[in-house]
Amino acid sequence: MSGNRRHISLNRPFAMHRGGELDGVRIAYETWGELNKRRDNAILLFTGLSPSAHAASASEDQSPGWWEDMIGPGRAIDTDRYFLICVNSLGSCFGTTGPSSVNPDTEETYRLTFPILSIEDIAQCGADVIEVLGIDQVAYVIGPSMGGMSALAFAMMHPDRAAGLILISSAARALPFAIAMRSLQREIIRSDPEWNDGQYQGHGAEQGMHLARKLGMVSYRSADEWKQRFGRERAPADEYRHPDQPFGIEFEIESYLEHHARKFSGSFDANCYLYLSRAMDLFDAADHGGCLETGLACVKASRVLIVGVTSDILFPVEQQRELAALLQVPDRELVFEQLSSNQGHDSFLVDMDRFRPVLSRFLNAG
Amino acid sequence: MSGNRRHISLNRPFAMHRGGELDGVRIAYETWGELNKRRDNAILLFTGLSPSAHAASASEDQSPGWWEDMIGPGRAIDTDRYFLICVNSLGSCFGTTGPSSVNPDTEETYRLTFPILSIEDIAQCGADVIEVLGIDQVAYVIGPSMGGMSALAFAMMHPDRAAGLILISSAARALPFAIAMRSLQREIIRSDPEWNDGQYQGHGAEQGMHLARKLGMVSYRSADEWKQRFGRERAPADEYRHPDQPFGIEFEIESYLEHHARKFSGSFDANCYLYLSRAMDLFDAADHGGCLETGLACVKASRVLIVGVTSDILFPVEQQRELAALLQVPDRELVFEQLSSNQGHDSFLVDMDRFRPVLSRFLNAG
Question: Mean pLDDT of all residues in chain B?
């Protein structure tokens, strides 16, 4: 499953953005395509909260990646042309150091002793990876959702290392509705007795993670999509629906949520989820210079693409419009695309017919 | 606290809409104003999921009611002119029979032996109350939110008993987004070990109810309101914010949700909440005749007011527009008011400056 995965190990302490440091940091990444001789065809991709670095299949790992339809020879992110690098976020649990890793200094799992995680730390790990790969500047840094925050942080922290910037369904900082949804997810996980103040066995807080995933789905999709897809259809009497269970599943929408929660179950570490979720709340481009304007003025990328979806309630399209307005400066080519997908925040994962042409047009014009 | 509360007791079995029956049903209600000699000035008010029948203060109970600013002498619902009756819903826990009541046949608390609750049962209790009060027809039946579903059910089941109908932030049936939110609230409550399959002591599942209330607030208010009110303000270090608590409260929006959840805590029985919540999902005006059109065609009220709010995500304004379109028939005076309050579903409770004139105009024109 991880045959395409590579790692770098830092041989110096990693200073965290909000204080503290980590020893022996290891960063997992995958690559597709070939770095050219001028070393100027790299694309650095940051992920949303939960995916690994396995964005697409590869000869060493043919399982489909989380952005399979977007990446490959001749696809929107054309690996015949570009050398794509996808990094597993710091704080996650797919090969990169995080709260579920062992602290080399204590030989115990970090758990809640992991320092406060910031989006800037995730961005810095991307910079460390390209440095080890001998790349001074990437052609584009790309990210959807939380990955867009990481990509933006990268472009603000290392302005000379990003010739281009692509932000998808993302934002310069979280609004209170998104904070409320994530805060509630975190409280649901922490309320699960099996979370046990982070001292659990296995992935931890299975029931809490199950409920948090369902709440996540509510924020990732859209009311309109569900109205079209499910209406008031009853669920079939199947593995999920047990007529004798009080207040159990009755409607198709409930069965759909159950299905997605079970698919997610056991795939993600609870403490890692808490750290990454909180990092999204804390991120604020205004921290880089005092206000959003000065923060975003750090970005030097000459080509910028901002994409948003009208039905997104977690990162509403007004936030992408704000990014586009603030990043619009002379001598920069900026494209803002507002898509009318009805699948909400998740559209970049599922509405490929709308997203592929947008990325393809922009990357092929460059 | 309940000095204005009256009860009726049914001396016959109460047949539940979806099967089963209840013995010794007791229905709590409050009234304001005086019934006139022609007995034609009554207004029957159904409530949302969680309020009691105490809609407004009265000489026998001067504590403010849940719709205090709407009701009273000279107010929008003018108790100098109208005789207002507010009924505590069947299945609730403020004096009316519900899952937390003792089953007279077994002398044990109903808990999950309470039969499936339907909005139609709540409506029927309203009909039973006015019958005991000697009222053949009410001038208006009114309801906000779930109360609107109850009012609509009343008007479909007893068309000759409702001369007028006022539906506020309500719907002919729930859409999947609303079902998802409520289903998740119920699952959160059921996942609390203290719920104990409904066999708890006290109000039950305090932590689950706390989380369900927070999720409720997410669905009752609006992202735009929170953006205006809270932005990214940090919470003060107060009773809610404990800097040493991992993943505890950091932002003002989190403190706001905590405040509301604590206010609600211990005020509502967990099993009652589950039954009422599910009743809202199950209600479908189309059950009355096979489709929405035939269901709503049962209504005979000659004056109808439908009010909706553009920022409501739980009962979106399209649902009120649908009600208005389907209830628009010759010889009926129908008014549809779409309000631009930014406080979401809760606007009818908090945006009095917009709601009062709408009800006042309609009731005073009649």
Answer: 96
Share of chain A above pLDDT 70, in %: 99
d(CA A218, CA B184): 10
pLDDT score, position A291: 95
Q: Where are the domains of chain B?
A: 5-173+285-365, 178-272
Taking the alpha carbons of A62, A67, A72, A74 in that order, is the dihedral positive or negative?
positive
How far is residue A191's CA from residue A184's CA, in Å, rounded to a whole number? 10
Q: Do B232 and A313 touch (CB under 8 A)?
A: no
Closest chain B CA to residue A246: B112
Residue B366 scores a pLDDT above 70: no
Chain B contact probe: residue of A179, A224, A345 with most B CBs at under 10 A: A179
> Is A312 known to be catalytic?
yes
Alpha helices in chain B (DSSP H): 119-132, 146-157, 176-191, 206-220, 223-229, 252-264, 270-282, 292-296, 317-327, 347-350, 352-365
**Which residue among B191, B197, B231 places its CB closest to the CB of A176?**
B231
CATH for the stretch A178-272 = 1.10.1740.110
Using alpha carbons, select from B311, B123, B310 the residue that is nearest to residue B225: B311
ipTM score for this prediction: 0.96
Give me the half-sphere count of Cα atoms (radius 13 Å) on the Cβ side of residue B350.
Answer: 12
Please determine, for residue A1, whether its predicted confidence score (pLDDT) is greater than 70.
no
Mean pLDDT of A10-29: 97
Chain B residue with CA closest to A220: the answer is B177
* 110-169 in chain B: CB under 8 A from chain A: 112
Contact A57, A68 (CB under 8 A): yes
**Mean pLDDT computed over B297-319:** 98
Is the Cβ of B281 closer than 8 Å to some Cβ of chain A? yes
Contact B127, B161 (CB under 8 A): yes
pLDDT band at A366 (very low <50, low <70, confident <90, very high): low
Residue in B175, B187, B193 nearest the CB of A211 = B187
Q: What is the mean pLDDT of residues B278-300?
A: 97
| Topology (CATH level 3) of domain B5-173+285-365 | Rossmann fold (3.40.50)
Interface contact A188-B211, CB threshold 8 A: yes
Q: How far is A145 from chain B (nearest CA, A)?
A: 18
Q: Residue length, chain B?
A: 366
User: Of B38, B298, B272, B21, which Cα lies nearest the Cα of B146?
Assistant: B272
B175 part of contact set with chain A, CB < 8 Å: yes
From chain A residues 311-340, the ones with a CB under 8 A of any chain B CB are 313, 316
Among residues B345, B346, B347, B351, the one annotated as catalytic is B345
Catalytic residue among B128, B192, B269, B312: B312
Whether B116 contacts A243, CB under 8 Å: no
B231 touches chain A (CB under 8 A): yes
SS3 A303: strand
- CA dist., res. A178 & res. A313, Å (int): 8
β-pairing verdict for A71-72 and A21-22? unpaired
Q: Say if residue B221's pLDDT is above 80.
A: yes
Do residues B292 and B286 touch, judged by C-beta distance below 8 A? yes
May I ask the CATH architecture of the domain A5-173+284-365?
Answer: 3-Layer(aba) Sandwich (3.40)
Cβ neighbour number for residue B19 with a 10 Å cutoff: 9
Active site residue A158: no
> B251, A173: Cβ pair inside 8 Å?
no
Residue A162 has phi, psi (to 5 degrees) of: -125, 105
Contact A223 B179 (CB under 8 A): no
pLDDT value, residue A265: 84
Residue of B96, B127, B87, B129 whose CA lies nearest to B25: B96
